[in-house]
Design brief:
Layout: E1 2-6, H1 11-22, E2 26-31, H2 39-48, E3 53-56, H3 62-71, E4 76-79, H4 86-91, H5 93-113, E5 119-121, H6 126-140
Helix pairs in contact: 1-2, 3-5, 5-6
The protein binds nicotinamide-adenine-dinucleotide (NAD).
Nicotinamide-adenine-dinucleotide (NAD) binds next to helix 1 and helix 5.
């Protein structure tokens, strides 16, 4: 399968990318490197012995993201992108909402335009659960049904 991993240069994302490559999946990573150095992906490729495609793109850049989806037919998206420092999110809630929610809306918009219905959202904070709700709302309105819908 061709799997797009958002936030794939991050902690959980990079481990997931390695596992996907070891399972012989083709991986595309989109990350703006706000919280992770791209060198993490060099190490993943060294460990797996497989190349991946990396786009240093902000998910909120809907046009840039759309070009990523134009390049290659994507089967599924695993969505790890986000800022997640608890203290900072309390100090700067609007920055966090803008980064995480606007990014997910942008991602779902581009997925919708490219008729891609499979997404695995990361869930750990309340707002991430709401993000899952956005994704499920979009996908439920189409022919596919989500396997699980946590709120
Ligand atoms: N770390 C944990 O123990 C844990 C556990 C459960 C769930 N989660 C969730 O998994 C997700 C990833 O966690 P992590 O620990 O890997 O975090 P992380 O900060 O290491 O990775 C997140 C990645 O998203 C990227 N990013 C942020 N904003 C972006 C944007 N607008 N456009 C593109 N890329 C952007 C960052 O550069 C970073 O590489 C988070 O949603 C987190 O809440 C984490």
């Amino acid at each position: 399968m061709v799997v797009l991993v958002t936030g794939g240069a991050g902690y959980i994302g990079s481990h997931t990318v390695l596992a996907l490559q070891r399972a012989a999946h083709e991986v595309i990573v989109v990350d703006n490197c706000a919280n992770s150095p791209p060198v993490a992906l060099d190490r993943v490729q060294q460990l797996s012995g497989s190349a991946l495609v990396f786009h240093e793109t902000d998910l909120r850049d809907t046009r840039g993201l759309s070009r990523v989806f134009d390049e290659r037919a994507i089967d599924v998206v695993i969505h790890f992108e986000g800022l997640k420092a608890v203290g900072e999110s309390v100090a700067h809630p609007l920055r966090y909402y803008h980064n995480n929610i606007a990014a997910t809306v942008s991602l779902c918009t581009v997925m919708d335009q490219h008729d891609i219905r499979k997404i695995v959202p990361a869930r750990s904070h309340q707002h991430r659960q709401r993000l899952a709700g956005i994704a499920f709302a979009l996908l439920q309105s189409r022919r596919s049904r989500p396997i699980r819908a946590h709120r």
